[in-house]
Amino acid sequence: xxxxxxQSYLTNAQTRQLDELIAWLRIPSxxxxxxxxxxxxAAAQWLVENMRQSGLExxxxxxxxxxxxxxxxxxxxxxxxxxxxxxxxxxxxxxxxLALWHTPPFEPTVRAxxxxxxxxxxxxxxxxxxxxxxxxxxxKAVEALLQTTGALPVNIKFLIEGEEEAGSQAIGxxxxxxxxxxxxxxxxxxxxxxxxxxxxxxxxGLRGNWTAEITVTGPSQDLHSGVxxxxxxxxxxxxxxxxxxxxxxxxxVTVPGFYDQVPExxxxxxxxxxxxxxxxxxxxxxxxxxxxxxxxxYTVVERIGARPTLEINGMWGGFITEGFKTxxxxxxxxxxxxxxxxxxxxxxxxxxxxxxxxQLAPPTIKVEVQGRPGSPAYTASLASPAIQWAxxxxxxxxxxxxxxxxxxxxxxxxxxxxxxxxxxxVLMGFGLPDDNLHAPNEKFYxxxxxxxxxxxxxxxxxxxxxxxxx
Amino acid sequence: xxxxxxQSYLTNAQTRQLDELIAWLRIPSxxxxxxxxxxxxAAAQWLVENMRQSGLExxxxxxxxxxxxxxxxxxxxxxxxxxxxxxxxxxxxxxxxLALWHTPPFEPTVRAxxxxxxxxxxxxxxxxxxxxxxxxxxxKAVEALLQTTGALPVNIKFLIEGEEEAGSQAIGxxxxxxxxxxxxxxxxxxxxxxxxxxxxxxxxGLRGNWTAEITVTGPSQDLHSGVxxxxxxxxxxxxxxxxxxxxxxxxxVTVPGFYDQVPExxxxxxxxxxxxxxxxxxxxxxxxxxxxxxxxxYTVVERIGARPTLEINGMWGGFITEGFKTxxxxxxxxxxxxxxxxxxxxxxxxxxxxxxxxQLAPPTIKVEVQGRPGSPAYTASLASPAIQWAxxxxxxxxxxxxxxxxxxxxxxxxxxxxxxxxxxxVLMGFGLPDDNLHAPNEKFYxxxxxxxxxxxxxxxxxxxxxxxxx
Lengths: 470, 470
Fold this sequence. Notes:
2 copies of one chain form a homodimer. By secondary structure, chain A is α+β, with helices and mostly antiparallel strands.
C-alpha cells in the first residue's frame, strides 16, 4: 500500500509529469531514418536531464556506433536489497502515412477517450505508448519515491536505448560487455500491453524477428510495356509470384524448414492461453478487417503469440503516383519480416527464406535478399518471485489479477539481458490493444500512465520488502 | 526525288529546326499529372505559333474538356489532289524515376550516338521520340515545301492532341463530331518505330489497351505486425496472391475468357512476321533482362505484336521508404494494363479481369477495381496505295525497303480515325528500339529527325502525283 504522502504527491504531480512527457514526445526520435539522427540525440539528452532532475545519479549519455544509450542509477538501498534494472527505449517508429493522423504525430494532443473506455483521456503522439510513455512511468515512480521518502526501497539501474525500432544493435553489444555495471537481480520492462483498461497482463513470451529487403531485377531499365510486354517478365509480376508462393491458403508459411524447430504447444499452455479473453470477434473489432486469417488449427491468441509469421511490411515497383504509365519497371522491391517463436534461430530462418526465394526465382529475373540481424523469441519462467510481485502490484492498483499471455511483438533486447545477466525479466505493460502502435494515431491511455506510476512504486516496494539471501 | 533547292533548304535549316524542337521539348507537358496542366497548355500554344510560322493556315487551339487540340491546314492543292490528315501528340509521359536520367528530362541534350549506331547524334529529352520529335517532322516538311515552292503537292490537315498518354478522351469525342472538318483521303501518323537506323518499318497493326487501378483493403488502418500478424491477412500479401494468379508459368494470362476472341495467327501472317529480324538475342540486348519471357508457342515478335498481355505497371503498399517498419498496411495498390489484339473488346476484357479478381478474392480482404476506358487494337490493309507510297518514300530516303510488322504499343486514336473517317492510316515511324520510350533517358536519333523530314516530303509528293478519281 502506498502512503498518503505518496498518494498526495502523485496527485499534485500529475499535470507536471504529463507536461514533461509531452515535451519529450515533441522530439521526433525516429531511429531508422537517418535525417532524424539529431532528433534521436536530442531525445536522449532530454532524458538525461529529466532523470537527473528526478533524483537518479550517475546519469550519462553513452555514445555508441549507433544511437546513444542513457544510463542512470540509485544504489543506496543497501547490499541486502535487490537491484532492479529498468529497460526502455526513447526511439520511435516512422510516422507515414502522415495523412492519416488526425493530429500531427509530434504535436502531442490530449483528447477524451473513445471506444470501449467510459472515462479518461488519451494522449495522441508517436511514441506515447511505444515506448516513451511507458519508459517514463518508472522515471516518475523513482521521482515520487525520492521526493517523498528521500530513498528507494531497492537499488535501481536504468538503461534506456534509442535503437529498439532499428534492431537494438548498440545495446546488444553494450550489455554483454558491461555485465558488472548492469548486474541486477531482476529486469523490469514496460513495452507491452494490457488486454483492457481493467485487465492487466503479464507477458511471459515474446516473438523474435528477422527482417530483409528483397529486390527483383528484370530488364536493365524501365521499359515501355507496349514495346516489350509479352516477351519480358515484369519484375512487379515476378515479385508477386515469389511472395505469393510464401504462404499456402491456410496462412501457413511454405518456406521449407520454417517450422522445423517450432515446438508444439502443450495442452497445459493451450489451456492457459485459452484464458485470454480475445477471440475472432474482438480481433475484428480491433483491426477492422473483413474476416480473420491464419492457421485454422490454432486460436487467434495462439496465432499471434505462439506461431511464427512472415509478413510483407512494404512493397513497391513501377509507376506508383497519380496518373498512368504503361511501364515495365526494371526492379520491384519488398520489405519482409518474420516473427519467430522459441527455438527458431533468426539467422537460420533468414537462410531458409533466402534459399527458398532463390529456388523459386525463374531465369527471367534475378532476386537479391538483403537480410538484417534478427532476434530470437523469449519465454519467461512463471515461477519466478519477480513475476509474482508484478502480479501483486497489478492486483493492488487495478483491483484485478493479471492474465498471462504470449505477445506477438518482439523486444530484441530481452534475450540479450537473459543471456548476459541471467536474471528474471518482468514484462509489465500498460499499453492497450487500440494504442495504434506503429500506425497512425498512436496514443497512450492517460489513466494507465498514472496507474502505471503507482504500479511501478508498488512493485519496487514489494521487491524491497525482500531481503537478499545471497 | 527532292529538288536541289529543297535539299539545300533542308541542309541550311537543320540547326534552326533542331533548336525549335529543343524549345518545344523544354515544356514539361505531362498530360496525366494535374500539376502540369499549365505546361500542357503552353506546349499546345507553342505548337500553334510554330505551325503558323511554318506556313500552315487556320491554325487554332481547340479547347476541350481535357487538354486542348491543335488544328491547322493548307488546302490550296486543288480538289483533284488528295487530302492528307496528319495526327500526332504533344503530351509526354511522366519522368520518374528521375534519378535514373543522365541529363534532366526537360533540359534537352545532344550527345554522340552510342550502341549499334556508328554515327549521328541523339537528342535526349522526354517526348523527343514520343511524340514531339516525330510530330514535328511533318510540320517542318510542310515548312520546307512552302518556303521553297510556295505550295504543297497535296491538301493537308494537322490534328495534334495533348492526351495521347492519358487515354485520348477529348480527341475521341472530337473526331466523330467533326467528320466534315477532318475529311481526308488518308491519315499519316508518326508515333511508331523502325527496327534499326537502316531498316524502316511499316506498322500495320497496333495493340489496344485497358487500364485499371486495383485496391486491396484489409484492416481499417495500418497495424503492428507483431500484435496482429498471423491472424490478419496482410493486404500486400493478398495483392501478391491475386496478381500472381493472373498468369501461368508460361506467361499465359489465366483470366477466364481472356483469349476467347483472339484470332489464331494465319500461316501467311506468321511467315510475314518471321521476316522481322528480331529474336530473343536482340530482345535481351535491348531490354537487358536475364532471359526472355512469354508464351512458348509464339515467337518474340508475335508475343509483342500479336498476342494480348496483362502487366502490373505499378504496385505499392505498406512502408516503402528508408528504414524498417513492422507494419501490416490497411491497403495495397496496383496499376494494371492489358495490351489487346484485334477482336478483343476493352470493356469486355475489363469486366473479365474484374470478375476474376473478385472471384479470387478471399473473404479476409476486399478488392476494388477502378477500370478506365480502353481502346481496341487495329490492323491496316496492306493493299492500300497509301501504304505503298509510304514504302516508296522510305526506300527513296533510307535506300532500303521497309519491313511490315505489328506493333505492341497502342495509339488509341487510330481506331477512332478509322471508324469515323473510314480512310487508310499510314503508320510511318522514325523511332528506334532503344529510344527509351516511357523510360528514363528517352532520346531521338537525330539523323532520323532529318531523314524523317525528307521522307515526309517524298511521301507527300508521291500522294500529290495521284489525281483523285472520285
